[in-house]
Each structure stands twice: as structure tokens, then as C-alpha cells.
């Protein structure tokens, strides 16, 4: 049986929540990716890396991309956490932009919905959201669309759902049987 580790980067806690659920379901270690060294991963066969989608990019993947040649022989699962619906073209576009075609062939990705907590954001993030909100209000196609969670940012929204990680858990457990 292989040895797995869940690595994650979380800004407001939603990716952390998913990482904790995965770690418990697989009975494996959980580590913040920014505190991990390459040598820490030598004993692991499988990496599950979780990061949030932010401004069209997947955060938390710098470590993987920087160390790709050393990690390519491991099984690597990517958990993308964002606010998009899972089946949108934007999710696929982010995936394709983040990784090369060779990397995509060797990685498996899973997309789950996270949440947004305005109070946990830094000043830069709050400014970006405010600019986006203003832009949406001034465009014809944006009018009315800000009435959802963007329109009322003072209230946190949480779309996390433990059941949404089941396909990932099943695939990893199936992979254990093949080792």
C-alpha cells in the first residue's frame, strides 16, 4: 500500500476544510505546502495538493511546478477549490493554463466549490473585489449580476460539501489497490 500526504494552501479556510476531510478519509498526513521541503516528500508515493482558484489561477501550485522533475514519478492529485460551478469551461481553461500538456497527462484534477469570507481577506483582495463589483455595475451585461454573493459581500458564503470529494477519495483508494 502506498503512502499519501495532503498538501494545501488556504487563504480563508475553505481549502483547509477540504484538505482536513481528505486527510481524515484517507488516514494520512496533512501539511501546509508553504512549510514543506522537497526532502519531506521522499517517503510518499501519492501527493494530494489542494489550492484555491483566485483571479483565474490556481494558488498553491508553485511548489509542484518548481519541483516537477523530482515529483513527476509520484501519483499526484490536484484539488481545485473555487466559486465556479464545477462543469464550467472556465475551470477547464484554468487547468489548461496552469499546467503544460505533459503535466496534465500525469495529473488528475478535481474541482470543488469553496466559499468567500470577505472579513478574512487582505486589503489587496478586498480592493480587487470592489473593483470587480464596480466594473460589473457599469457594464450592460453586469447589471443585476452582482445581486448574488458579490452584491452582498459582508455575508460569508460557504459552498463546501464533504460529498464533493468522494470521487477523489474513491480514485485514490482504487490507486492503492494497484500498487
From TrEMBL:
Protein's GO biological process: heme biosynthetic process
Domain of life: Bacteria
Gene3D superfamilies: 3.40.50.360
Pfam families: Flavodoxin_5
Organism: [Clostridium] polysaccharolyticum
Transmembrane segments: none
Domain Flavodoxin residue range list: 5-138
Protein name: Protoporphyrinogen IX oxidase, menaquinone-dependent (Flavodoxin domain)
Sample GO molecular function, one term: electron transfer activity
PROSITE patterns reported for this sequence: FLAVODOXIN
Lineage: Bacteria, Bacillati, Bacillota, Clostridia, Lachnospirales
Amino acid at each position: 500500500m502506498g503512502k499519501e500526504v495532503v498538501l494545501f494552501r488556504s487563504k480563508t479556510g475553505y481549502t483547509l476544510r477540504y484538505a482536513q476531510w481528505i486527510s481524515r478519509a484517507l488516514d494520512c498526513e496533512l501539511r501546509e505546502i508553504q512549510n514543506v521541503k522537497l526532502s519531506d516528500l521522499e517517503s510518499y508515493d501519492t501527493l494530494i495538493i489542494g489550492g484555491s482558484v483566485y483571479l483565474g489561477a490556481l494558488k498553491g501550485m508553485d511548489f509542484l511546478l518548481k519541483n516537477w522533475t523530482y515529483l513527476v514519478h509520484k501519483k499526484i492529485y490536484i484539488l481545485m477549490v473555487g466559486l465556479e460551478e464545477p462543469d464550467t469551461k472556465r475551470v477547464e481553461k484554468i487547468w489548461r493554463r496552469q499546467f503544460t500538456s505533459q503535466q496534465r497527462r500525469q495529473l488528475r484534477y478535481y474541482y470543488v466549490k469553496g466559499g468567500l469570507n470577505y472579513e478574512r481577506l487582505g486589503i489587496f483582495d478586498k480592493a480587487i473585489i470592489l473593483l470587480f463589483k464596480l466594473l460589473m455595475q457599469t457594464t450592460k451585461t453586469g447589471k443585476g449580476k452582482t445581486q448574488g454573493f458579490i452584491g452582498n459581500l459582508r455575508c460569508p458564503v460557504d459552498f463546501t460539501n464533504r460529498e464533493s470529494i468522494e470521487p477523489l477519495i474513491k480514485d485514490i483508494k482504487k490507486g492503492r489497490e494497484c500498487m
